Amino acid sequence: MNAIRFIVPGNIEHRSGGNLYNARLVEQLEALGARTEVVVLDGAWPPGLPEDRESLAWALRDAQLAIVDGLVAAGAPGEIEAAVFAGTRVWILSHMAFTEHAGLEARSLAAASGVICPSSFAAANLMSLYGLERVHVALPGTLPAEPAVGSHPPHIVCVAALLPNKSQLLLVEALARLGRLPWTVSLIGSPDADPAYAAKVRAAVGQYGLEDRIRLAGELHGQELENEWHTADLSVLVSERESFGMAVPESLAHGVPAIVRKGTGAEEALGDYGAGAAVDLDGGPGALAEALAAWLEDPELAARWRDAALARRGTLPGWAATAESVLTLIRG
């Protein structure tokens, strides 16, 4: 089999689920014996400037088989169409829909040899938005991890870049209502993705006098991130929009239950194993505060969630399964 040319965006510099998925997929494709050529394209994706789209055209020009990250493909239907017409099999790996470029994205997805999403939630969304007949799913995997031991007082982590969509401000406002209860929190994510929003989060922590209880840890990797998971009792991912939410299976891999926002792909990531809760947050921070208070004040509930997370930990798929799914699709 010829090398798989994997074209990814270079304009997302913080830790993101899409970037992490791409990197793990490449590692496992190589481990399975599939040669890959990763091409990182800088540019204002999506939709990219004319020179960015020309770079994509060059990257596709002599490839026989390519996977293009949806962030790049969404704004470049002409380049996708031309490559497919020239005989290149082009698969789009769509981590999320870009409805602000709906017309362009619809053309790109329709022209592609196939479309892959990281969740059934994301696939159904694309099919509904663009009338696609079929979108394939290759669920993210997890890496082996040691179970967390927890902390006293209970320690909560939120692993996500500081961005408005990730709703850390809502989490801080919810926690401000629970000052009478014992807890600590780490917000683990880059403050550079949206400095203005990060400043609002930091200001809210100060406004509520929670500096000694909420730590803005920045983006962590390796052992520093593992240390946070090791001491965690609960994770929270309450993004307004989430295709899957890879921090959720990462949490479960450490035996740490999670609270997620109902109606997002994070609900699919959590599953119905009893390892946490999907909460309707249309009511704002009050609804999240209520869910957190229930977990903090009910030891039996906390124990059930913890036991379910530990049980789920042993059944999570690895990244090899993700790569095998992708290989089966693109070879077919």
Short précis:
This protein is an alpha/beta fold and 332 residues long.
State the main characteristics.
alpha/beta, Rossmann fold, 332 residues
Domains, number: 2
- The order of strands across the largest sheet is 2-1-3-4-5-6
If helices are DSSP runs of H or I spanning 4 or more residues, what is the number of helices? 14
The CATH class of the largest domain: Alpha Beta
Report the biggest beta sheet as strand number plus sense, adding barrel if it closes: 6 strands, parallel
Q: What Rg is obtained from the alpha carbons, in whole angstroms?
A: 20 Å
Q: How many β-strand stretches?
A: 12
CATH topology of the largest domain, which one?
Rossmann fold
**By helix and strand content, what is the structural category?**
alpha/beta
CATH superfamily of the largest domain: Glycogen Phosphorylase B
H/E element sequence = EHEHEHHEHEHEEHEHEHEHEHEHHH
Indicate the overall shape.
globular
The level of helicity is 40-55%
Proportion of beta-strand residues:
15-25%
Based on the coordinates given, report the CATH architecture of the largest domain.
Answer: 3-Layer(aba) Sandwich
Distance between the termini: 12 Å
Q: What is the arithmetic mean of pLDDT? A: 95
Low-confidence stretches: none
Helices and strands, with pairings:
Layout: E1 4-9, H1 17-31, E2 36-41, H2 50-61, E3 65-69, H3 70-73, H4 77-85, E4 89-93, H5 102-111, E5 114-117, H6 120-130, E6 136-137, E7 155-159, H7 168-176, E8 184-188, H8 195-207, E9 214-216, H9 222-230, E10 234-237, H10 247-253, E11 258-261, H11 265-270, E12 276-279, H12 285-297, H13 299-313, H14 319-331
Parallel strand pairs: 1-2, 1-3, 3-4, 4-5, 5-6, 7-8, 7-10, 8-9, 10-11, 11-12
Helix pairs in contact: 1-14, 2-4, 4-5, 7-8, 7-12, 10-13
